[in-house]
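Can you give me the bound-state structure? Components:
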Amino acid sequence: MTRTYGITGVASGIGAALAQVLKAQGNRVVGYDLLETYENVDHFVPLDLADKASIRSAAMATPWMLDGLCNNAGLPPVADQAAKILQVNFTGTRGFTQAMMPHLNAGASLVNMASRAGHKWHNNLDQIKRLAGLQQLEQIARFVDDEAIDPTRAYNLSKEAVLLWTLSMTEEMVHRDIRVNSLSPGGIATGILDDFKKAFGMQMAKNVERAGRVGTPEEVAKIAAFVLSPDSHWLKGADISIDGGMGAFNMTDALGLAVMLGPDKGGTA
Amino acid sequence: MTRTYGITGVASGIGAALAQVLKAQGNRVVGYDLLETYENVDHFVPLDLADKASIRSAAMATPWMLDGLCNNAGLPPVADQAAKILQVNFTGTRGFTQAMMPHLNAGASLVNMASRAGHKWHNNLDQIKRLAGLQQLEQIARFVDDEAIDPTRAYNLSKEAVLLWTLSMTEEMVHRDIRVNSLSPGGIATGILDDFKKAFGMQMAKNVERAGRVGTPEEVAKIAAFVLSPDSHWLKGADISIDGGMGAFNMTDALGLAVMLGPDKGGTA
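Here's the bound-state model for the whole set.
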């Protein structure tokens, strides 16, 4: 049975790799992006997540009912773009998802691309909720000024918001017979890796060294394809870290978990 | 290419379902359990995780090198079994895993069955570390007395320990070219579901009602099979909740996340 999946940010990086994996599995792909592409895409729809009119048109231009949608498009932490990062990565993605509801089949799987960079949401709950109350780019620009949010913080905040938004809509989606999950990649070799290296510096370099290498878009795409597929259908409201162990290394250090290995390992294994 | 996977607790529940899924995918299965079974099992090895000698023999009796091992065997929260629950679910499982290291191929995937019941580990870090320092059943029995641990707490503690142990060994496993992840099912329809209902009461009933039903062993098994497979190979030190949304519902309530849906949903969607 042919299934149809939508992917935002399909022209490059993880989105392009996901289109390739899904096509190789025999699925049909609707690709959404600013940049036109037909590689591994059965139908292309232009989409600018910073533009409300574009979001509405893209949803309306969706040619087939979808069995799943991967909200993958996002901006990295680059200079002078804080408001736009928040708009594209969170507010616009949320708006696009709402607009896409009539285009999703029963049983459809939504996959939101979050990030390991969003995993410290516990420390920022109030700020995340303030962001969630905004809709317009001008409101977001004022919020960025008022709260002195730099691009790195904007990126992290946008992903914190994606994680909590995913949790918050899980129950409504269950009622609609749609399911939603998030993925949290860390340190992936895409065209925007240099932006992350600049933004996250030494911490990221150390993580990559311990993991042995950065991850590849294909490695994330294979997991995204599984979460889109019916085989994972009891996964709802889950977040999956895809980071080659980087999160576990950091948790082990921070919490002193070497003792968990047992007395005969002397906590030094 | 035929791959070979080991499963503990293969005679029933999620273990039996996983054997079926892996066999259907063309893999070879080595099954470990107290109860002898040959259903979907190419080779059966008796294993009592409460018995050190049995753990050693079972590892030695493993007939083929494994491409993955699912540490699935575990006791539910039943009366008068607190020490044994800790021993089987955590200490014995950890010992068996250490004994199995020489039987794992390069690239092998370890999957530890944790539980949603272990997700409150943040509150119990010191107790979990004290447990991790114990090896012998008599030590564990004394610990259970000293800390007044009832069977429900023992179950939760055993799963908290499995989660943190998984994190703690991620880096060592990377160095061995083995990877390890955990799964956290919640509310699954196995033979031990009634034990969980008794132990967790109303909270669990409410979660199941909101999710619409309990999950099935097959639903967990399909996800376990994916995490065992090479397609998920960049997953390391990750924990995946498999609960039909129950964790997300509880987080949304506890953190007041309805606002994340946005102003036009009025936080009431």
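A couple of observations. The beta strands of chain B are 4-8, 28-33, 43-46, 66-71, 104-113, 179-185, 239-242. The first strand of chain B starts at residue 4 and ends at 8.
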